[in-house]
Amino acid sequence: MPTELSGKAIALAINKASKTIVAEHSLRPHMLLIQVGEDPASSYYVQSILNTAPKLGCEAELLTLAADCGQQKLLDIILEANSNPDVHGIMIQKPLPGDIDDSVINISINPDKDLDALHPVNLGRILMENEAFLPCTPAAVFYTLKYYGIDPQGKNTVILGRSNVVGKPLANMLLWKRPYANATVTVCHSRTAKLAEICRKADILISAIGSPNFVKADMVAEGSVLIDVGINEITKADGSSAYVGDIDFAACAPKAAAITPVPGGIGRITTSVLYLNLVKASLIAAGINKTVDEYIDIIFSENQKKL
């Protein structure tokens, strides 16, 4: 049986790091969380974010806007939050209504308050290996590899999906010249030829395409590590709903050395990373020259698992 790479322990370890930093430096990190409309899936995630804040000594303020509020109103609110010293971090819950341009919104957020790390400045920092914030989902993958001692150095690492949110930043992070990076990265997408053949050559296969059970057993190598970023709602034969990943867990697990579950894997970690970014933003605002890496290293070393 493969090792199941549960996200629960990783999320707890990251939360412990955040809580330690907050207490040590007497911080009170404050997040402005903006939700436009009332998408049920978004509302579930928003509630999870709000519930986590007090456990870490943080504050999360929710501002809910009508779906027809318009782009300019959202921009005005962001501009005000950018200049408010009491707001350390800003998160815009996605998806946004169709009449609001994501790229315009991303660029409008102060890079030092950009908790999703989608501003071009933060994406550029990732490329240059001097990042302040990490996008939540790519960081969740990175911390999963680190926590379980899966070093991608020199290994064929295939990423399915080239989005600005996951695929592109994750590819650049795995190319970093540092521990738990230095990978040989291939990014595949909807126009990739001989996709299954490329996947079969992967030592580490990471899927982030949002297609339920897309990756089948004949697409993975024996002894590979499978990281499933996808979370897709499906309707079962009895009419009930369930959540599955991009990777067909039942079919692929017997061939894998390790695999993340869905749910309970990468998605479990993303809220913890969001708050870690908020703590970073609070340190920046306070003028404290301290990185979170040392805290993560200490706490991970206390609990780290090895394949």
Overview of the molecule:
With 307 residues, the chain is an alpha/beta fold. Among the domains are: 83 residues, 3-Layer(aba) Sandwich (Rossmann fold), CATH 3.40.50; 131 residues, NAD(P)-binding Rossmann-like Domain (Rossmann fold), CATH 3.40.50. Helices cover 39% and strands 17% of the residues. It is built from eleven helices and eleven strands. The strands form three sheets. A six-stranded parallel β-sheet has the order 1-11-8-7-5-6. A three-stranded parallel β-sheet has the order 3-2-4, sandwiched between helices. Strands 9-10 form a two-stranded antiparallel ribbon. Strand 5, helix 7 and strand 6 form a beta-alpha-beta unit. Helix 1 packs parallel to helix 10 and helix 1 packs across helix 11.
Q: What tags apply to this protein structure?
A:
307 residues, alpha/beta, Rossmann fold, six-stranded parallel β-sheet, three-stranded parallel β-sheet, 11 helices
What's the CATH superfamily of the domain at 136-266, by name?
NAD(P)-binding Rossmann-like Domain
Strands of the biggest beta sheet: in what spatial order? Answer: 1-11-8-7-5-6
CATH topology title of the domain at 136-266 = Rossmann fold
Structural category: alpha/beta
The span between the termini is 12 Å
CA-based shape: globular
Mean pLDDT equals 94
CATH class of the domain at 136-266, named Alpha Beta
Strand % is 15-25%
Q: Largest sheet, described in full? A: 6 strands, parallel
Overall CATH architecture of the domain at 136-266: 3-Layer(aba) Sandwich
Determine Rg (CA atoms, Å). Answer: 19 Å
Q: What's the helix-strand series?
A: EHEHEHEHHHEHEHEEEEHEHH
* Sequence stretches where pLDDT stays below 50 over 5 or more residues: none
Number of strands: 11
If helices are DSSP runs of H or I spanning 4 or more residues, what is the number of helices? Answer: 11
How helix-rich are the residues, as a percent range? 25-40%
